[in-house]
Structure formats: C-alpha cells, structure tokens
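Budget justification note: compute hours in this period were largely spent on complex prediction jobs such as the one shown. Inputs:
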Amino acid sequence: MEKRAHISGWTLPLLLILPQMAITVIFFYWPASQAIWQSFLREDAFGLASEFVGFENYASLFEQPEYYRAMVTTAIFSSLVAFFSLACALLLASQADKNLRGGQAFKTLLVWPYAVAPAIAGVLWLFMFHPTLGTLSKPIKAVGIDWNPMLNANHAMTLLVLSATWKQISYNFLFFLAGLQAIPKSVIEAAAIDGAGPLRRFWTVIFPLLSPTTFFLLVVNIVYVFFDTFGIIDAVTGGGPAGQTTTLVYKVYADGRLGGDLGGSAAQSVILMIIVIALTAIQFRYVERKVQY
Amino acid sequence: MAGVTLDTVRKIYAGNVEAVKGVSLSIEDGSFCVLVGPSGCGKSTLLRMIAGLETISGGEVKIGDRVVNQVEPADRDIAMVFQNYALYPHMSVYDNMAYGLRNRGTPKGEIEKRVKEAARILAIESFLARKPRQLSGGQRQRVAMGRAIVRKPQVFLFDEPLSNLDAKLRVQMRVEIKRLQRALGVTSIYVTHDQVEAMTLSDKLVVMSGGQVEQVGTPAEVYRRPETRFVATFIGSPPMNILPGTVEGPGRVSVGGQSIAVTDMRDGLTPGSAIEVGLRPEDVQAGGVGASSLSMDVDFVEELGATQLFHGKVAGAEFIVQASTGQLPADTRKLTLAVDPENVHLFDPQTTKRLGRE
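Corresponding output:
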C-alpha cells in the first residue's frame, strides 16, 4: 500500500518546516556561529574595540592548568552523575514495574523532582547540607566526619553529584519504566521456567533487552551533565572551593561573564560543542553495532 | 516422567473474581490432555497455576507424587510453550535453547549434544546461529518447542501455541506436536479455544466453561455423549442444533407437534414437561425416510465443497443440516429430516444437564 502523501509544489512543505528552522537558526546556529567568530577575536576590557587574533585564544587556553583541571572535573562529575542517576532510576523502575499497592502514587511522586528548577534544586540541597545550618549536616558531623562543602572539594563534589543525580533520576525513571513495560511478560516467565532466579533473569534477559533505552539515556545524561547542571553548580558551589568544582560549562561562564575574557570564553564553548558532538557521534556509532538485537 | 493431579484447585483474583472454581482432574503419565473452552473460561489460568506463574488460591496441584503449590516454576520440572513463543530476542536460536540448561549448570558438551539433537528432531539445524527476528512464525514455534524439549522435563505445558500461525501452518504444526509427544512420551497439557485442535490432539479432553470443568473424556466420548448443553454446542462443527420439545412418554419426545423416538432417555420424566432436543447437523438424514422425521424450512445453503450446509428453521428454532454435495438440489425450500433414535440428545432446560440413561 502506498503510504506516502503527495504534496505538489514547495510552498506548503516550506511553511511547515519554517518555524522549526527559524528557531534552530536563530537560537542555535546564529549564536554558535557568533561564538566561533568571537573565539578568534580579542576584546578590550570595556568592549569598545576588538582585534582578530586567530587561534591565540585557543593556544592560551591550552596553556592554563585550570582548563585541564576543569576537563578532569567534568569527566569525574559527568561519569558519577550518569552512573548513579541511571543505576538508581533502573532500580526504582524495576521495583515500580512490579504490581505494587499504591504503585501509581509511587510513580507520580518519583517524577516530581524533574519539575524543580536546577538552581532551586541546588539551593535545596545546599540548605540540607550547609555546614552550619543544614539539617543533614548534624548527623554527618555526629558520626565524626568534618563535613564542610564550602572548604572541602570532595565534599563539594559529593553535594553536586547528589543534587544533579536527584534531579535526573525522574527522567531516567520514566524511560526505564516504559522500557521495562515494553518487555513481554511471557519472555520473563519463560526465563523463570528456564530456571533463572530473579537476579540472573535481570542480568541475562531484562538488562540486555533494555540496552537501547540505557544507551539512549546515557547519551542524554551526559549532555545533561555537560550543560544543564550549570544552575546547580552556580547555586551550590559557584565552582569553588578554589575552582575545584568548576566544570567546562561553568568555566565558560566564569571566564566570560565574571572574568570578562569573551574571546577565551567563546573558544571554550566552541571546544565544548565539539566535545559533545564527538561524544554523541561516537556513542551512536557504537549503538548501531552493539545494542541491536 | 510423571502425571499431574489437580484437587479442587481454585483461583480467586483481587476483588473476589473467581476465575477457576474448584477443578479436580487427574492426568495420567504420558498422556496428552487438552483443556478447551471459550475465552475467559479459566483454562489458561489453570495452566499457569500448574506452571507456577500464578499463585494457587485453594486446592492442591501435584506433579508426580509431589505437591507443588509452593514450588518455584524453575523447580517444578516443567517446560512451557507460550502463545507468542516468548523467545529471548537478543539470543541466537542455539542460546535460546541452551539457556535453561546453562541455568541448571549442565556441562557444556551435554548442552551441545542436547541442543543439536533437538534441532535435528525439529529440522531447525540450519538456523542455530540466527536471531529469533530472522525467523518466520513457524520456525519460531519450532525453536520454542526445541527450548522445551532440550530440558527433558516431566511435563510439557502448551498455552495456545498455534493461534499465531496461519491456518495451513497450524494444521501442519498440530500434526508435528502430536507426533513429537508420541515419540517423547512426555505428559502434556495443552490449552486451546479451537475445538478441532482439541479433538485431534487429545487423549483426554477437558471441556471448561465459567471456571469449571463441564466434561472430561476421550474426544469420541465427549462428541458422542455430551454431558451438558454447553459441551454439546461447543464440540463439533457446525454446532449441535438445540430444539425446544416436550416429553411424550418413555422413549418419545415431541418437537413442534412432530413425534420423535429416542434411545438414550432417562426414565420417569413427566409427560408434558419441557425438554431440549439436540441433533447434530451431520446426524440427521436430509430427505431421508426413517422411524421419526421433522420438517424444515430452508433459508439458504452454504457450499463447503464436499458438503453443503442447509440453514433454516425447525419448529421455529434455528437449524443446520449437513448433506453431501449433489444429494439435494441447491434451491430446496422444504426438507424432511429423518432422525435416528440413537442420535438424539436430551437436555434439561433448567440445569442444562443431559437427560440420558443413568
């Protein structure tokens, strides 16, 4: 059966894709090209004059030890958040997939954190774990840990990972739950009859069948940690202590807005863009070969 | 190998819905038992309780001499073939069949031997490296069977395994399942809503309706002497005709003023009381002359090739007669039906039970 619709002429198709194209061009391609152009310029402190400097901004960037540190911080931060938010969401989804009493309420409540703005989520966690005001700092201090995310970089990172993970679990949970519900029940029953216990069933049947979902979420989560955690970092640590929780995206902001180095900041965002495009491309290459079944 | 015994098995779902209302059944070792009934009659639930996929609300399920109510499906020593095959989509055909053996720690050489053997029996040797999605429906069905037989279980359970296949393949697989079961001699329980499948496959036929067993017997017994009106109309195609009648006296009933002799009739029925008279479309002689006869108004004729079905009314009730093609002209409008007293089934209009000799 012929399923394609035939539209004669170009006017209607053009009109239909115009809004999407306009938004993409105005809010993505235009700023991106601006950033690329700006990364080749050096501006004076008052923004009155700029000169073309070629790759100088990039060269000076790679001479800064802070830049490498931000890369390492980003790598640690993103792998921790991606791992924990995926693992927790999968655990919660596999529990919610069982026919529990009040399961619907459980599912709804689990989705709520996603509606919280990143900065607010950050402030919330900051309050709970504030070294002097935090309700949860007291029990931590009571067990003998000198908890202080304001001064201790590891503590600050822990707090960031917690808040970023907490916010992302909801999103991952929804996808995992949908993925789990798409697995035919009889396949799992067949595995049960085939002598696989719950844990073995999970790792040999359910997890492999979920792999397309897991993979998709991995890509989305990494992009999330790279860009969307800006609000959380700004609210919780402001990149500190001593720049030790400054990720690549936070450094773009810190150098450009706070440091006034627009050229260097633009160069950083171009590199960031390239990294994310490359990561996504690699991941999708991999999925085509490995995750298909 | 082992038989299966059910003792007043019940299934009550949340909200007090009783899906299976106390079924007792004993399935002999090595026999092929078919549970048949319309959808929602509890046959699949019963099978799933035997498999251990549903909890048992009451009664007892025994496999061999062991009560298995609290035993996990994996430990019941059963294998099940599902309606949608339930193959593991990410595993090759070989791994699908080997999975159950690996889970039980069977040595590698033994696994290979058994999988190869099963593949040979089912003629799927050339597909062992393929994934299920690369197979046709019939091939997937074979893999599902292979997965069941490599385990060498005590009991095979089949949950409508042929209903996803096209008509031609269904007939072919039906024969293969029967042949395989004969060769392996494993006790099998098979659920279907298709009465032809039920008749052809079973040694023991169990007709279910509304969560209860209506009748148990060999296919021939169930066909020749249905115990209830439900069984009479469910087994046999086209279904048995049921006519309203009244008792005339011992061995005689009347349908629309026409008197019919009956061999299998209970003694002591009150003359004049209402009774239901069952006649199979293939048991009445269209245009024949016999001891008793009925007249029929024909509405239309269905051509089935070898036979014709005459649809019409007898004594105001719908009636179907089967006749060999060419026996009667297709434009027949009125028929006289000869009725053999041996082939008349009587049922109580209230209880729907058979009113035959005790």
